[in-house]
Design brief:
This protein has 157 residues and is mainly alpha-helical. Helices cover 69% and strands 0% of the residues. It has a single domain, classed as Ribonuclease III domain (Ribonuclease iii, N-terminal Endonuclease Domain, Chain A), CATH 1.10.1520.10.
């Protein structure tokens, strides 16, 4: 079984509700093979995390670029929260080592894995928000995703 305390140490975010942390890493395929976990897959947390992520990024961009138009800010936000960038951030955070997937899904390391990683990052953001609140999740996103803003802007990604 995966030891999520290692992930907590890595991120510095210690969960009060350990099931919430674990749920953030549970892919739908894992539930199909492990029906007795007592937990659900991470899709609802992903839904919440997507909204939290968008709020944090939007607030950051709004403050960082006071002379940009709404359209420019929207493009920047889209570039920052796209699945490829988020999957890279999830990989950098070590999330791949903690994914709970079906046997078949765990063998796929291609494009499908990228989307799973991006979704897991969003689910984790949702779980952090639920467990620790806005300030903690804001700090996590600020440390993991937002440092890539300048690169994305300079390379016009």
């Amino acid at each position: 079984m995966v030891n999520f305390s290692d992930f907590e140490k890595k991120t510095g975010i210690i969960f009060k509700d350990k099931d919430l942390l674990k749920q953030a890493f549970i892919h739908r395929s894992y539930i199909n093979e492990n029906t007795n976990t007592g937990l659900s897959h991470n899709e609802r947390l992903e839904f919440l995390g997507d909204a939290v992520l968008e709020l944090v990024v939007t607030d950051y961009l709004y403050r960082k670029y006071p002379n940009h138009t709404e359209g420019e800010l929207t493009s920047l936000r889209s570039a920052l929260v796209n699945a490829i960038i988020i999957a890279e951030i999830a990989t950098d955070c070590g999330m791949n080592d903690f994914l709970l997937l079906s046997k078949g899904e765990s063998k796929d390391m291609g494009k499908a894995r990228q989307y799973i990683l991006a979704n897991t990052y969003e689910a984790y953001v949702g779980a952090v928000y639920m467990d620790s609140g806005y300030e903690v999740v804001n700090k996590f996103i600020t440390e993991t995703l937002l440092p890539h803003t300048d690169e994305i802007v300079s390379k016009k990604l």
